[in-house]
Amino acid sequence: MIRLLQVLVVEDSENDMKLLLEELQRGGYEAVHERVQTPAELISALQRHAWDVVLSDYVLPQFSGPDALKLLRENGFDTPFIAISGVYGEEAAVDMMKAGANDYIVKSNLSRLVPAIERELEAAQSRRARVRAETAMQFLAAIVESSDDAIYGKDLDGNIISWNKAAERIFGYTADEIIGHSIAILYPVDRRDELIDTMERIRQGRRVGLYETVRLRKDGQFIPASVTVSPMLDHRGKVVGASAITRDITLRKNDEADRFKLIEELTESLKQVKTLNGLLPICASCKRIRDDQGYWQQVETYIAEHTNADFTHGICPDCLEKFKSSVKTAA
User: Fold this and answer.
1) Are 76 and 24 members of one domain?
2) CATH number, position 69
3) Which range marks the domain in which residue 11 is found?
4) pLDDT tens across 21-41, in order?
5) Pairs from 89-96 (Cβ < 8 Å, separation ≥ 24)
6) Contact 166, 149 (CB under 8 A)
7) What is the pTM of this model?
C-alpha cells in the first residue's frame, strides 16, 4: 500500500534528490516534495506548506545543513530533520545531532532513510500528542484556579491532595495548611456519617450528585454549601480518589430565609385584617347602617369597628358646588 509523505528537500543536486525519492518509493512512500537551495526558499516553503519531514544535504553552495536546521528551529517548526551527507564525518554528525537534528545519514547508505523517517514520524506524533495533553492540562488547571467554586481532590483515604484558590477563600485554609490533612476537617461533627457514605460510594466508582449540606470553615463558622463529588480514575480506569466541587450558598440561603420571613409576616398580617362581607342594611336617606344589634350607625363608625380603615374628611367637587350655591342663595 502506497503512503503519501510530504517531503521538503534541501539539496542543490537534482540527481541526489531523485535518489532520495527512489529510496522512499522502494520503502512504500509516494513523496509530495519540493526542493529548496537557499534560506529564503526554505522559509517560504515552510510557511506555505505543512511538511512531514525535512531532508537536508550537509553542504550546499549558498547554504548548509546546520543553517537549514537553525532556521527551522528558530521559526518554531518541530518537523523531523534528517541530515544527509555525501561523506561520513563523525564530528559533523555529532554537531548536527547536538543542534537538534533527528538523524544523520550518509548518502552511500540510504537504506537507513525510510526506517529513520518512520521512527521520527512516530516520535513527532508522540511529541505533538504530549504537547496537546500538556496544553489541555494547563488549560484545565487555569479553569480550576479561576473558578469561584472550591475545587479540590482527595485520595481514597480522604486526604486532601489538591486545593484551588476559591477553596482557600471559602474555607480559610491555604493549600500549604490543608494538603495532606483529612477532608474530615471540613465536616461538622454531626455530618461525619455523610463523609463515610460519600467515600464508600466513591470507592465503588459512583458519583455523588449535587446536594446541599453544611461545611466547616477554619474559624469554626458553618457554611451552607452545594457539593458534587466524582471519582478520579487513573489511566487504567481504576478509582484512585475523588474530586469535589463546593459552592458557598450562604447568600442564597439568607435570601430564602428573608423571603420565608416576609411570607410569614404577610400571612400573619392577613389574619389580623377585618373584612366586611354579606348584606349591609343601609338607609336610603341618611345612609346610616344597621348593625347586628339593630342599631343605626354612621357609616364611618360602622366601618371603623369592622375594619382597620381610618377616615379622613374632605368634600367632593359636587358637594362643594352645592355648598357654594346654597351660600349664594342664602346671601
Assistant:
1) yes
2) 3.40.50.2300
3) 3-135
4) 999 999 999 999 999 999 999
5) 92/58, 95/66, 96/58, 96/65, 96/66, 96/69
6) yes
7) 0.56
pLDDT mean across residues, the chain: 87
The residue among 135, 156, 177 that closes a domain is 135
Residues 227 and 183 in one domain: yes
Instruction: Show which of 135, 156, 186 is a domain's final residue.
Output: 135
Spatial CB neighbours of 247, under 8 Å, sequence gap ≥ 6: 148, 149, 150, 225, 226, 227
Sign of CA dihedral 92, 97, 101, 102: positive
Asked if residue 169 is part of any domain, the answer here is yes
113 & 155 share domain: no
Amino acid making up residue 79: T
11 and 128 inside one domain: yes
Backbone region of residue 217 per phi and psi (left: phi > 0; alpha: psi in -120 to 50; beta: other values): beta
- Rounded Cα distance between 151 and 249, Å, is 15
Q: Please state, in angstroms and rounded to a whole number, the distance separating the CA atoms of residues 291 and 41.
A: 111
Give the number of domains in the chain.
Answer: 3
Report if residue 92 sits inside a domain: yes
Q: Is residue 227 part of a domain?
A: yes
pLDDT band, very low/low/confident/very high, at 62 (cuts 50, 70, 90): confident
Answer whether residue 19 is part of any domain. Answer: yes
Pair 222, 214: CB distance under 8 Å: yes
Q: Check which CATH number belongs to the domain holding 187 and give it.
A: 3.30.450.20
Cα Rg of the chain, angstroms? 43
Q: Is the pLDDT of residue 274 over 60?
A: no
Residue 215's nearest CA partner among 265, 278, 167 is 167
Give residue-wise pLDDT tens across range 88-139. 666 777 778 888 888 988 888 899 999 999 999 999 899 888 888 888 888 8
Query: How far from chain centre, in Å, is Cα 126?
Result: 26
**What pLDDT does 326 receive?**
72
**Beta strand 103-106 with 81-85: parallel, antiparallel or unpaired?**
parallel
Cell triple for 181: 490533612
